């Protein structure tokens, strides 16, 4: 896996890009959770979102590492 990505002449760490992708996925999941009503069963929604964000970013990095390597 490459640790730096060249984006139009700007070198960015790959973790930053995965963080942005994970944030977009989490925003979509959050909208879905509100519509379904999942947050009624969650004690602390902010901690739930943070933990789920960490799981999503870890899954993205692991999947990329397995597919690209």
Description:
This protein is mainly alpha-helical and about 70 residues long. The protein has one domain (about 15-69). It is built from 2 helices and 2 strands. The chain has helices at about 15-35, 45-69, and strands at about 5, 10-15. The protein has a two-stranded antiparallel ribbon. α1 (about 15-35) crosses α2 (about 45-69). The longest helix has 24 residues, at about 45-69. The protein is elongated. The termini are close together.
Topology:
Elements: E1 4-7, E2 10-13, H1 14-36, H2 45-68
Antiparallel strand pairs: 1-2
In short:
The chain is mostly helical. The protein contains 2 helices and 2 strands. Strands 1-2 form a two-stranded antiparallel sheet.
Helix content: 55-70%
N/C terminus separation: 6 Å
Task: Please write the string of helix (H) and strand (E) elements.
Answer: EEHH
Mean pLDDT rating: 88
- Characterize the largest beta sheet: strand count, sense, and whether it forms a barrel: 2 strands, antiparallel
Structural class: mainly alpha
The low-confidence parts are: none
Number of helices: 2
Which radius of gyration do the C-alpha atoms yield?
A: 15 Å
User: Biggest sheet, strands in spatial order?
Assistant: 1-2
Number of domains: 1
Q: Which percent band covers the strand fraction?
A: 5-15%
Count of strand segments:
2
Global morphology: elongated
